[in-house]
Design brief:
The complex is a heterodimer.
Chain A lengths: L17 E4 L2 E3 L11 E10 L5 E10 L17 E2 L6 E3 L3 E9 L17 E8 L9 E4 L3 E5 L2 E7 L9 E11 L2 E12 L5 E6 L2 E3 L7 E6 L16 E5 L9 E6 L2 E5 L10 E9 L2 E10 L2 E6 L7 E7 L5 E10 L3 E9 L2 E6 L8 E13 L6 E26 L11 E8 L4 E8 H10 L2 E2 L5 E4 L5 H4 L13 E4 L16 E4 L17 E5 L5 E10 L8 E5 L15 E8 L1
Parallel strand pairs in A: 6-13, 15-21, 28-37, 29-33, 34-36
Antiparallel strand pairs in A: 1-2, 3-4, 5-7, 7-11, 8-9, 8-12, 10-11, 12-13, 14-16, 16-19, 17-20, 18-19, 20-21, 22-23, 23-26, 24-25, 24-27, 27-28, 28-38, 29-30, 31-32, 32-33, 34-37, 35-36, 35-38
Chain B lengths: L1 H27 L9 E3 L15 E3 L3 E6 L6 E6 L5 E4 L6 E9 L2 E7 L5 E8 L2 E15 L5 E6 L13 E5 L31 E4 L19 E3 L4 E2 L5 E8 L2 E8 L9 E6 L20 E7 L2 E8 L7 E8 L4 E2 L3
Antiparallel strand pairs in B: 1-2, 2-3, 3-4, 4-5, 6-7, 7-8, 8-9, 9-10, 10-11, 11-12, 13-15, 14-15, 15-16, 16-17, 17-21, 18-19, 19-20
The chains are: A mainly beta, B mainly beta.
């Protein structure tokens, strides 16, 4: 150790102490830079002038000086928030709130902190506890953004995932900043509104154009006015049609938690038939049920009995509605229009007036229903859409049905006369006698049942005259010569059946002209009251029926005598469908 | 037939009024003779009811009444102060629908046979007797003066193919022989001539020419068939009758003029509706028929025709024509 350079001051090279007071002296010790750390013993001479002196050993430590201390940290910020709007949160809702205040710190990462480990602001709600002892429920809201030190935007989801419950709560906003934790709070109120449920709407079918004065909605969770708060208002009702049209409602009365009464529910007359959504409550607490809006309608639903001049229509309208229905039948030449008065809703069987329908071939129908609603809202003209008849209705009008037969010789009175009966397959003939009246009747009617020769036809209406030309005996004429046949056939080349087959004009086989009636057409012979008296099938030509509206019906009557023995079948309103 | 009956039905009302006036007059002045005419007949397209309605013709000179009170029908003839006579009728008649007096001693009876055929009976009134009779398949139509019967030759009413309407004219004032020109009319065994064919009564006027004999009226070849296409429409003076006929998709108007001299023959002229007048143009041949002719009427020496164009499945269009007789062509020329 060297002392001389260490001790003393420059102006006092000898290290004398400087008197301070009676018990203190001061001196300066200089340790040279670079001196290693060490512990030394130094001897101090304490000499009092003109007095005694003493030595004192003192231990000193030489240490390299410590680096300078860093500057002190800045003071913790003072985080604050202003009152929150809204400060009442309803369960089930999501709130996008803006929080204003001071000293907000954005997190350094994109992930917002939910605990105090980042130098950033975090949000949470505490409910039901004491922050020092019982934190109760804690709900962090990571979905926020520190926009600036003075603004945070946050999404508060009070949905089913939240642990919060209705009641008071505290919104915390805090910073965790290098041990400098600052926090502040603002109170919020969490409420839970009743959740509505609709179980019944009565009536739940509403006709377009009608105003309903009393529609009752039953269910649960409805909020009455005396229970309502701002966050849980009186249950509202909104009705929207499927086409997004709003169905007006005059008043909504929430009578109780389970009953709402609507007045003035008025789906517009222009509404089509569609569903309507009835929504009760306010989002997110809503309930929806469906009602049906029915447009007034009139539809021809069944034309399967058009051969009787009968159709079925379905009229859809509120009870009490009545109105005249006009139906049009479209034919090839005419349009027939008939009014059916004061028809009420429902399925209706309508009979066209067969005495008025002009003969024609009808294929389509449409019409209009002038429906008068009983609520006084006026008449609605309801279009009856055009419908194609199930089958074309060929209406002939009132038609005379005469009758003809194949006379039986056994039924004939009077004498006989010579005749010839040909077998056309062999061109051989037999001569003999036939009843004279039978001969005439067979000539007239075209066929007759003889006693001895079976079924006979006059030779002039067969091909036997040509087949057997030159083989007719002397005396044979078209009036006294017959051909044996096995069945009575008509121009349709089918067997004629008694009380079933009819003959028509023009020839139904279409050889001579295109007839209105064709072979095998089934005819409906109706009374004026649209009931069917008979049915017949077209099987033959009736040349005499050219006189118009005349059909000849083959009967099983075997009469041979005249004088009206075979009278008319009658006059019938006749039609066929095809 | 129908037009004539209608005319008479209208006249019946007038006649009844006149008769009532006459009755009143006779009550006041019994010496006044009344000439009122009363007719009872059935309308067009009458049905057969099974009960014969009253049918009669009454005029100042004669009463002709159908008696159907028994199974043996007859016409009861009461003429002046002569004794009542009866003209028996055949038992084939289903229903009598008209009796017309044609001349002082001649009447015509029209009746329904079975199956739509018609019976025409020529009745002599003094003595009362059925002088001739024949059947018709359509018509028959009496001239307004009741002298002529235009009718369609009979064919069996059912069972044949391709019937043809052949029109014939019968002169009520003639005889069976005169109405069978150029044909033997003597009776054959036992009561009819061996070649007798009652379907050939009268003279053919269309489509057969007068005197033409040999054409059948059944089983005619397709396309050759003549079909009646209208009623028979007589001129008011009974001198002419017009009707429409269709063959092969062409409608022709046919006018038959009555003989103008004793022993004369009817004359037939025809006017085919061709070119722009062809109401069947554009439709198939088969669709041309009676339904294309709504009505025919006399207009002096012209024919007014209300025709129908009937397109397939479309509204019919009426076409009216007036055709002077000068445009008609003599049949056979």
């Amino acid at each position: 150790m060297t002392t001389s350079p260490v001790f003393g001051s420059p102006d006092q090279p000898f290290p004398y102490g400087n008197y301070v007071d009676a018990t203190h002296t001061a001196f300066t010790i200089t340790v040279a830079s670079g001196t290693p750390d060490e512990v030394d013993i130094i001897q101090l001479l304490c000499e009092v002038c003109n007095s005694s002196a003493s030595y004192y050993d003192a231990q000193i430590s030489i240490q390299t000086p410590l680096p300078p201390s860093p500057p002190p940290p800045p003071p913790c910020g003072t985080i604050t928030i202003n009152p929150l709007t809204p400060s009442t949160w309803t369960m089930g809702k999501t709130y996008h709130v803006t929080i204003t205040g001071t000293d907000f710190v954005a997190p350094s990462t994109s992930e917002n902190p939910t605990y105090c480990q980042e130098n950033a602001t975090r949000l949470w709600v505490q409910q039901g506890g004491d922050s020092g002892v019982d934190y109760g429920g804690i709900e962090y809201f990571p979905d926020f953004k520190v926009v600036s030190p003075t603004q945070i935007t946050a999404t508060i989801k009070m949905d089913a995932s939240t642990s919060l419950t209705a009641g008071p709560a505290i919104l915390w906003v805090g910073n965790c900043d290098d041990g400098c934790v600052t926090e502040t709070t603002v109170p919020v109120q969490i409420v839970e509104c009743d959740v509505p449920n609709i179980t019944e709407i009565k009536p739940n079918t509403w006709f377009a154009g009608k105003t309903y004065g009393n529609v009752v909605i039953k269910g649960s969770g409805f909020t009455t006015s005396d229970k309502a708060i701002a966050a849980c208002p009186v249950t509202a009702i909104n009705i929207t049609a499927a086409d997004n049209g709003v169905v007006p409602v005059s008043t909504v009365n929430v009578d109780s938690k389970t009953k709402i009464t609507l007045t003035g529910v008025a789906p517009p007359a222009s509404d089509p038939t569609e569903a309507a959504s009835v929504t009760a409550g306010t989002a997110p607490n809503t309930a929806t049920a469906t009602a049906q809006i029915e447009a007034l309608s009139a539809t021809v639903t069944d034309t399967g009995k058009i051969q009787d001049g009968t159709v079925k229509v379905k009229l859809v309208a509120p009870g009490g509605t009545a109105g005249d229905l006009t139906l049009n039948l479209y034919g090839e030449n005419d349009t027939y229009t008939q009014d059916f008065t004061s028809l009420s809703p429902g399925s209706q069987k309508l009979d066209f007036d067969l005495t008025s329908v002009p003969p024609d071939t009808y294929s389509t129908a449409d019409g209009t229903w002038n429906a008068n609603l009983s609520d006084g809202s006026g008449a609605q003209s309801v279009n009856v859409p055009s419908v194609t008849l199930a089958k074309e209705w060929i209406y002939l009008g009132l038609t005379r049905f005469s009758q003809y037969n194949a006379p039986y010789e056994s039924q004939c009175s009077g004498g006989s006369q010579p005749m010839y009966v040909f077998d056309r397959s062999s061109c051989t003939y037999a001569s003999g006698q036939l009843n004279a009246k039978f001969i005439s009747k067979t000539q007239l009617n075209g066929t007759g049942m003889s006693i001895n020769y079976g079924l006979l036809k006059p030779i002039r209406i067969t091909n036997a005259g040509k087949l057997c030309k030159g083989k007719l005996p002397p005396g044979a004429s078209s009036l006294n010569t017959f051909v044996q046949v096995s069945t009575v056939t008509g121009s349709c080349n089918t067997a004629i059946a008694a009380n079933h087959s009819v003959a028509t004009f023009p020839n139904p086989n279409g050889k001579e002209e295109t007839p209105l009636l064709l072979c095998k057409d089934s005819l409906n012979l109706d009374q004026a009251d649209n009931t069917t008296a008979y049915t017949r099938v077209v099987a033959d030509k009736c040349p005499a029926c050219i006189d118009g509206n005349h059909i000849d019906s083959f009967t099983d009557n075997q009469a041979c005598d005249a004088h009206g023995a075979i009278g008319d079948l009658g006059n019938f309103y006749t039609s066929t469908t095809r | 037939m129908t037009q004539g009956i209608f005319n008479r039905c209208e006249n019946r009302l007038q006649a009844f009024s006149l008769w009532m006036a006459c009755v009143a007059l006779m009550l006041l002045t019994p010496s006044v003779l009344c000439c009122a005419q009363q007719v009872k007949e059935l309308p067009t397209n009458h049905g057969i009811t099974g009960k014969q309605p009253d049918i009669y013709w009454h005029d100042a000179d004669i009463s002709l009444d159908l008696d159907a009170s028994t199974k043996d029908w007859s016409v009861v003839v009461q003429q002046g102060t002569n004794p009542v006579e009866r003209a028996p009728l055949p038992d084939l008649l289903e229903q009598v629908y008209a009796i017309h007096r044609a001349a002082p001693n001649r009447a015509v009876l029209l009746a329904d046979l079975s199956a739509g055929a018609k019976f025409i009976g020529i009745i002599g009134t003094s003595p009362a007797k059925l002088l001739d009779s024949f059947w018709s398949s359509a018509g028959p139509s009496l001239s307004p003066d009741n002298r002529y019967v235009l009718f369609v030759r009979f064919y069996p009413m059912h069972g044949a193919d391709n019937y043809e309407d052949q029109y014939r004219l019968y002169d009520v004032l003639g005889t069976r022989a005169s109405n069978w020109p150029e044909r033997p009319a003597q009776d054959g065994p036992p009561t009819e001539p061996i070649n007798y064919d009652s379907t050939l009564a009268g003279v053919p006027v269309y489509p057969l020419k007068a005197g033409e004999l040999g054409r059948e009226n059944t089983n005619i070849e397709d396309g050759q068939v003549h079909q009646r296409a209208s009623e028979f429409i007589w001129s008011a003076d009974s001198s002419k009758v017009v009707f429409a006929d269709v063959q092969g998709g062409v409608i022709s108007l046919v006018v038959v003029s009555m003989p103008t001299a004793a022993g004369g023959k009817p004359q037939t002229v025809v006017y085919p509706l061709a070119g722009t007048e062809n109401v069947c143009l554009g439709t198939s041949e088969a669709e041309c028929n009676i339904f294309n002719v709504r009505s025919l009427a006399w207009d002096g020496e012209s024919i007014r025709a209300a025709l129908m164009i009937r397109p397939n499945h479309a509204k019919a269009i009426e076409k009216d024509l007036t055709i002077p007789l000068s445009k008609f062509v003599l049949v056979g020329k």
